[in-house]
């Protein structure tokens, strides 16, 4: 495969991501109970839900990291499980459990990633330099990843996901434990990516971030989609956090019931 993931391929038809009837069980626990979801091309979708809602499991099945018990996943028109190699060429992934080759420098990690994908020189070297510079890692390029901060690790992992210029990015909590400067840089890069036609699926717990950054939102709980559409459609003129709590907050008791709290 050349420098671009989709090189030699025309644009796919239909949605950039298409999930139908995705199901996953872990023993007696049904983590995902039939997810149906479309993500349009060039759109930025926020996948939100409480802990244990099935967000990470859904993303893992959509990216070929976890085989579903039922249903299908397509990325850029390619069935993830019928043609996994081609599907992986069309996706960039920043997973929840961020594991990097820590004894490589940032520059070496990117170069190694590009060579695994068959990217030719000198295009690879130029892209490595471009990404390190844009993400504020140029000075840290020679530094071992083991010595990177959390924000630096997120940024170099994002650079690895973007290196082959995939049509679709899957990002699982990319802003978690990231400092404000790094978060701003990541937001700017993602906006530029979607502005040029790329598609992003992002999971997050931060409703304000999703409201500000995303075009579309899907709220999931109990392994099912409870609401999906544009951010404005789902919000219905209310703050997204308020809608989210109404949808998934069943059974929650009011803090006012803790009458003993703070008393002496």
Automatic annotation (TrEMBL):
<dbReference type="InterPro" id="IPR050763">
    <property type="entry name" value="ABC_transporter_ATP-binding"/>
</dbReference>
<feature type="domain" description="ABC transporter">
    <location>
        <begin position="17"/>
        <end position="247"/>
    </location>
</feature>
<keyword id="KW-0046">Antibiotic resistance</keyword>
<keyword id="KW-0547">Nucleotide-binding</keyword>
<dbReference type="InterPro" id="IPR003593">
    <property type="entry name" value="AAA+_ATPase"/>
</dbReference>
<dbReference type="GO" id="GO:0005524">
    <property type="term" value="F:ATP binding"/>
</dbReference>
<keyword id="KW-0067">ATP-binding</keyword>
<protein>
    <submittedName>
        <fullName>ABC transporter ATP-binding protein</fullName>
    </submittedName>
</protein>
<keyword id="KW-0813">Transport</keyword>
<dbReference type="InterPro" id="IPR003439">
    <property type="entry name" value="ABC_transporter-like_ATP-bd"/>
</dbReference>
<dbReference type="InterPro" id="IPR027417">
    <property type="entry name" value="P-loop_NTPase"/>
</dbReference>
<dbReference type="Pfam" id="PF00005">
    <property type="entry name" value="ABC_tran"/>
</dbReference>
């Amino acid at each position: 495969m050349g420098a671009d993931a989709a090189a030699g391929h025309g644009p796919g038809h239909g949605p950039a991501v298409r999930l139908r009837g995705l199901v996953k069980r872990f023993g007696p626990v049904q983590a995902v109970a039939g997810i149906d979801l479309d993500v349009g091309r060039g759109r930025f979708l926020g996948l939100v839900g409480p802990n244990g809602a099935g967000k990470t499991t859904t993303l893992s099945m959509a990216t070929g990291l976890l085989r579903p018990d039922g249903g299908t996943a397509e990325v850029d028109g390619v069935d993830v499980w019928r043609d996994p190699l081609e599907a992986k060429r069309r996706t960039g992934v920043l997973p929840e459990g961020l594991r990097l080759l820590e004894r490589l420098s940032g520059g070496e990690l990117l170069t190694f990633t590009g060579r695994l994908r068959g990217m030719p020189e000198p295009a690879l070297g130029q892209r490595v330099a471009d990404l390190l510079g844009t993400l504020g890692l140029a000075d840290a390029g020679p530094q071992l990843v083991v010595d990177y901060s959390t924000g630096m690790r997120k940024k170099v992992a994002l650079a690895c996901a973007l290196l082959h210029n995939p049509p679709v990015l899957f990002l699982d909590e990319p802003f978690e434990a990231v400092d404000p400067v790094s978060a701003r840089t990541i937001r700017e890069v993602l906006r530029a990516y979607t502005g040029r036609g790329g598609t992003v699926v992002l999971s997050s717990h931060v409703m304000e971030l999703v409201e500000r950054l995303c075009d579309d939102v899907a709220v999931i709980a109990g392994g099912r989609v409870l609401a999906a559409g544009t951010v404005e459609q789902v919000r219905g003129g209310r703050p997204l956090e308020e809608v989210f709590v109404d949808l998934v907050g069943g059974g929650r008791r009011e803090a006012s019931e803790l009458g003993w709290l703070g008393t002496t």
